[in-house]
Amino acid sequence: MTDAVPDTSYPLARALGARLVGRSLVTLAILVALATLVGAVAGAGWVPAGVVAVVGVVLVAAWAWWLLTRARALSLTTEGYAVRLLTGVGVTAAPWSRVGEATAASPGGERCLVLTLTDGRTTRLPMSALDADADVVASDVLQRLRDAHTTDDPTPGDPVDGTPGDGPT
User: Fold this and answer.
1) Helix ranges (DSSP H) in the chain
2) CATH code of the domain occupying 73-148
3) Distance from first CA to last CA of the chain, Å, rounded?
4) pLDDT score of 1 more than 70
């Protein structure tokens, strides 16, 4: 009998998190510029831009803290997997019972783990997007997939002790 593997999750790669924070800062700069224009046209001066800047910096700081310390890009449970914060990966969540196979691939030289579902759809997990060793992630996924597709119940008619003819008659 196989012991249940505890749930695991893998964080977002720091470089990818930093890039997302950078995009947020660019968005904030655009919002501050728009608030400055609104303040100038409405005669409110710098107040709208100041409010947007202060609130925006607080929000971006909280977003950065969460992305770099708490965010999980891949969660694996005994029931299935879920991919978050990554776009273009295909199917973002599925139970292990619907996963037909897991294979390694390198499209464009980027190391990926491809999960193919029984209906033909796929999930492509770029290993560079995870802050974890690619071999550890692949091993974890394969173990869970193996556990999900292995039953501990003997098939009726199978020999009980491995000797032919000892099964139920």
Assistant:
1) 14-42, 47-69, 134-148
2) 2.30.29.30
3) 25
4) no
